[in-house]
Amino acid sequence: MLDPKQADELPGDMDPALRSEIAHTTAAAIVHQGRASDDPELVARLVTLVEAEGLDVVAAMWADSPADTLPGALWRLYVLREWVRRDPRTIAERYRLGVVAAPVHDVVAGVASPPGPAEVRQVADAVLSGVFAGDLAVALERGAAFCRVLATGAAFDADHLDDLDDAESMHLTHGASLLVRTADELTEAASLWRADRLD
Predict the structure, then answer these.
(1) pLDDT tens digit at each of 199 positions of the chain
(2) Which of 78, 86, 126, 131 is the most interior residue, by most CB within 10 Å?
(3) Is the peptide bond before 114 cis (omega within 30 degrees of 0)?
(4) How far apart are CA 4 and CA 109, in angstroms?
């Protein structure tokens, strides 16, 4: 596989078919290697892939992949984890707001109560760990449930800002709709995995 420096030195943009092949090959290799191993250290390294390799490297591999593919689903989970890692206080607050109106999704997501920065970080790590050391479909569903609770919390937050900061309120509302879309995509990916059609 090309490292990022070698890829940057290639003339022109990478052929989309080659980019797709690389995305699918790397995603399958990572998932299958993690699932074939009983080594918790390997799983921990795979969960922290973004810290080790950088978000740009992971994005170069998987960001353009459709949501109904393994690399697309992995990309969404890694981005979710990275978002939680970078801003756990805001995520915990949005989760706290959303859990009241989305209790079923809270149960599936499995965040400890009360949800604080450490608890949301633990869930993000647990979701990715489940990809490699558990039922991948359940991990995707947990990620989807987590997104739905956060979307609900962001919508409540937007409602509170309506009279104070209209632009920020609209930004949060848009973010909530993106989280709902991500939740739908992860749910669909879970169904495809169960049907042995997520590749």
Answers:
(1) 445 565 555 445 668 888 899 999 999 999 999 999 999 999 999 999 999 999 999 999 999 999 999 999 999 999 999 999 999 999 999 999 999 898 889 899 999 988 999 999 999 999 999 999 999 999 999 999 999 999 999 999 888 777 677 888 888 899 999 999 999 999 999 999 999 999 9
(2) 131
(3) yes
(4) 34
